[in-house]
Amino acid sequence: MSDNRSVKIRVRQLSKVFGNQPKKALELRDQGLKRPEILDRTGQTLGLSDINFDVYEGELLVIMGLSGSGKSTLIRCLNRLIEPSEGEIVIDGENIPSLKERELLECRRRHFSMVFQNFALFPHRTVRQNAEFGLEIRGVDPAERRQTAASALKQVGLAGWEDAYPNQLSGGMQQRVGLARALANDASVLLMDEAFSALDPLIRGDMQQELLELQHRMKKTTVFITHDLDEALSIGDRIVLLKDGEVVQIGTPEEILTQPADDYVRRFIEGVDKSRILRAESAMRKVRSTVRDTDGPRTALRKMRDHGLDAIYILDRERRLIGLIDADAASQALEEGKQRVTDVMTQDFRKVVREEPLHNLFAMFHENRFPIAVVDENQVLQGVVVKGAVLDELAQAGER
Amino acid sequence: MAIEIPRVPLGDWIEDGLNWLTSEYSIVTRAISRVTQTGIDGLNDALMWLPDWSLLVIIAALCWWLASVRLAIGAMAGLALIWNLDLWDPMIETLTLVVIATLVAVVIALPVGIAAALSERLYKTIMPVLDFMQTMPAFVYLIPAIPFFGIGSVSAIFATVIFSMPPAIRFTTLGIRQVPVELVEAADAYGATRGQKLLKVQLPMSLPTVMAGINQTIMLALSMVVIAAMIGADGLGSEVWRAIQRLRPGDGFEAGIAVVILAMLLDRLTQSLRKQRKS
C-alpha cells in the first residue's frame, strides 16, 4: 500500500562510528564483526551500521529501540546534528551528508523542524519568541512571523500564553510550545526525538492523540523516535525497529506484532497488550447468510428475516464483498421498486483483513453499528466479528 | 661527587625579552600610554568636576534604582564617611583606575572568552595562560609595567588589566559552555548560523555567568589598583603606602576602610545588575 507513495527521505547504507578511526571500524564490520568486538579491537563504537529505510511523503514513521540502540543517533544523522560516517540520506534529491556548510543550513531551514525530549525551549524567550525562532533564523519579517507563530500556538491550544515564559508552563504545555515552534517553521519534515517521553502518562496519551490529529490534518511527514513500544504501535504508520545500531524489522504495527522478524522482536512484543497480538480471525464467526449482487431487495429482506439479521452482506460472483444492505434500506427499495440490492447498498461498515489485531477493532465498534466484516487479500468474505466475540476471545486469552 | 649543573638563566631570558619588547615596540607602548592617560585624566576630571555631594546623590540614586533602598542608605553613609575622612579625592582616583582597568579587561576578555568557548584548541591553550596570570604574584606585573609605560597610573592600569582579566575570560567561557547541549542542538536544528546561535542563544543564556565574571574582575581590579600605589598610582593605595612608610597605622586603616567601602559598593551594585538580568 505504501509502495505507490512517493519517497520523501531515502536512507541507504547509513553508518556512524563514534571515534577517530571510523574507516578501520567499518572494515571490521564488513568482515562480519559485531559492536562489542569492534570496540575491543579498535576502541571505536559502532553507533549505526548499514541502515536502510525510506520515509514516505506524509507518513508518520516511528523509529523505535531501547536505549543504546542508536535511535537518537539516527534521527540526528538525518539533519546532520551528528555527522554520519558513511552512507546516503537523500531528501528531495539532495544528499545531506555531502552538503557544504551553507547548503546544510539551507537544507535544515527548508526541510527539518525538530521537537526534543526535554523540550529545549529557550528560557530567556517568551512562548511567542520561542515559537518564532525558526522563522527568525530564516529572516522572515517580524509581522509575518508573529502571525505564523500565533496560529501555530493556537493549533496546539496555547492561544493566550504568548507572553509567558517557558518556566511558567507545565511540562505538557512546554512541549506544546516545542511543537508550535516546529509547526510555525513549516519545514517539510518533522523530527520528534522522544518528544513525549518526559511527560506523565495521561498528558502523553493526550499529546499522542493530538499529534495524530495534526498529522492527519496536515499530512506532515514525521519521523518519531521512541523507546516505548505501545507508543510506537499506537501512532506509527510504520515502525523501524532498531537493535544495537542495526535495523531488525521494518513494518506496520500489525506486521511487527503478527510477523515478528526474529526472537528479539518476539520477546519485545511479549509484554504488549494481548488485544494487540490476537488477530481478527481468532474472534471471527461464520456468516449466517449473504445475498448476491444480482438479487433484489425482496430476497435480501427474506434472508434477513429467516436468519434474524438486521443487515446482510452483498457478494459478487467470486464471493467478494462489495457492500451491505440493512432492513430499512431494503424495504424502502422494495417500495420504490428498485430491482437490485446494489442500487441501495451502503459502504458504511468496516472491513478488516484476517490478520487485523483485535485491538484495532474496538474503535471500529465504537464508530459503527454493524458487525465488522473479515475478508482475505482478494476481498473474499471470510466471516464477521461481533463485539461480544472479541471480549470472549480476550477473556480466554487472559486465562491461557 | 657533585655534578655541575648550570643554572638555567630564566631571569636573563625574560629580561632580554622584555628589553627587546620595550625597545622594538616603544611606539606602540607610547601610544597606548598616551591614550590610556587621556582616558584616566578625562574620567578623573569629570568625576572631580562634579560637586562631591552631587556625585554622592547620583551613586545613592543608582543604588536605589538598581538594588534597594538599603544599599542606597548604606552607600550614602559610607561615602559620607570617606568624604569626612578627607579621602574623597583619592577615592575618586581609585574609582577611575578601577573603571578604566575593568573596561579594558572586559573588552579584551569577552571576545577571548567566547572564542575559547567555541574552540577546543584555543581553550586548551588559553587555560594554562590564565592559570599563570592568576597565580603569578600580583607584584611581579608591576616590574615590567615600568619599562613599558613608566611610573604612574598607566603602568597601574596595565598590571591591573593583566591581573584582573582571567575571571572575566573564564566565566565567559564557562557561561557559554554551560548552555545545555539540547538548546544548542535546537538552534542548529533550525538552521542557525554560528553568529545567530551565539547572539540569540549562547550569549543571552550565559549573561548571568558573564556578569559574575565581571564582578570578580572589578574586585580584583580594585585590589590591584591599591597595590599599584607601589609604582606610583594615585588614589587610596598611595594613602596606605604613605601610612606604611611613615608607620602611621591610623591613617593606613582609614584609607583601608575607604577601600572596603568602595569594594562593597561596587560588588553589591554589579551583583544586583546580575540578579536583575536573571529574573
Architecture overview:
The complex is a heterodimer of chains A (400) and B (279). The radius of gyration of chain A is 26 Å and the shape is globular. The relative contact order of chain A is 0.10. Chain A has a domain at 280-399: Roll (CBS-domain). With 400 residues, chain A is an alpha/beta fold. The longest helix of chain A is centred in the middle third of the chain and has 18 residues, at 201-218. Chain A has helices at residues 22-30, 35-42, 71-78, 101-111, 127-131, 133-138, 142-155, 171-185, 201-218, 229-235, 253-258, 263-270, 274-277, 297-307, 327-336, 359-367, 387-399, and strands spanning 7-18, 45-56, 60-64, 86-91, 94-95, 112-115, 189-193, 221-226, 238-243, 246-251, 290-292, 311-315, 321-326, 351-353, 372-375, 381-385. Chain B has 279 residues and is an all-alpha fold. Chain B has one domain (26-278): Orthogonal Bundle (MetI-like fold). Chain B has twelve helices and no strands. Chain B is globular, with a radius of gyration of 22 Å. Chains A and B meet through helix 4, strand 6 and helix 6 of A and helix 9 and helix 10 of B.
List low-pLDDT spans of chain A: none
CATH fold field value of the domain at 280-399 in chain A: CBS-domain
Q: Which CATH class of the domain at 280-399 in chain A applies here?
A: Alpha Beta
What CATH calls the topology of chain B is MetI-like fold
Distance between the termini of chain B: 70 Å
- Please state the average pLDDT score of chain B: 89
Q: What integer value in Å does the Rg of chain B equal?
A: 22 Å
Oligomer: heterodimer
| Number of structural domains of chain B | 1
Q: Which second-level CATH architecture of the domain at 280-399 in chain A applies?
A: Roll
Summarize the main sheet of chain A.
6 strands, mixed
Largest interface: A-B, 25 and 17 residues
Number of strands of chain B: 0
Largest sheet properties of chain B: none
CATH architectural designation of chain B: Orthogonal Bundle
Q: What share of the residues of chain B lie within helices?
A: over 70%
SS-based class of chain B: mainly alpha
Question: Order of helices and strands of chain B, N to C?
Answer: HHHHHHHHHHHH
Count of individual beta strands of chain A = 16
